[in-house]
Amino acid sequence: MNKHAVPRACSITKVYMKTPLSLLTAFLILLVTACDSGASTPTDNATEVGIENTTPAEAAADEPIDLADAEFSDAMIDKVFQNYLQLRTALVNDDAATAATAAGNMADTFDDEREELRMLAQQIADADALDIQRTYFSALTVEIESLFEDALAGGRIYKLHCPMAFDGKGADWYSEVSEIRNPYFGDAMLTCGRVEEEITGG
Q1: Which superkingdom does the taxonomy of this entry point to (predicted)?
Q2: What is the 3-state secondary structure (H, E, C) of the chain?
Q3: pTM of this prediction?
Q4: Is 160 exposed, middle or buried, given 0-12, 13-18 or 19+ CB atoms closer than 10 A?
Q5: Nearest-angstrom CA–CA distance, 154 and 157
């Protein structure tokens, strides 16, 4: 592009009087073409950004719901959390047999210092009815709260709440995602509940 300053209107008139018409026309065409080639429109830039970027909602929708991103400072607690998620998912699916298996695995994972938690998990494993399993699951969630929250070293977990569980008394559960999948009612009221707390580690 020509580095000289663009002549003002009054200067152009003076040049027009002394310069052949063809030369003045060529100069103006060259000036306009050079300016247009260096310009970019906001619309074009916005379109490119829209194509290249993915929104957080779209990215989250592509992640499997049953894979936890949470990291715990203790390997035993990490395994217990995985067992807990398997138990929760089984209750969401109204699957008492799978819930019993997951709870049994959890009971086997606890060390001797967590005897009360081990007994609660074993009671779920020994129960063959969903309503009994869900009652013990609620008690387990209350007792396991400090274990999960204190040992969370990275990522995040969610504490969710169902206000209608147990005749309106309410009950909590933990999840690796904020999406509501109610373990206390299963398919009958799958999305009943709210996010009570987002807990981040680190």
Answers
A1: Bacteria
A2: CCCCCCCCHHHHHHHHHHCCHHHHHHHHHHHHHHHHHCCCCHHHHHHHHHHHCCCHHHHHHCCCCCCCCCEECCHHHHHHHHHHHHHHHHHHCCCHHHHHHHHHHHHHHCCHHHHHHHHHHHHHHHCCCHHHHHHHHHHHHHHHHHHHHHHEEECEEEEEEECCHHHHCCEEEEECCCCCCCCCCHHHHCCCCEEEEEEECC
A3: 0.67
A4: buried
A5: 9
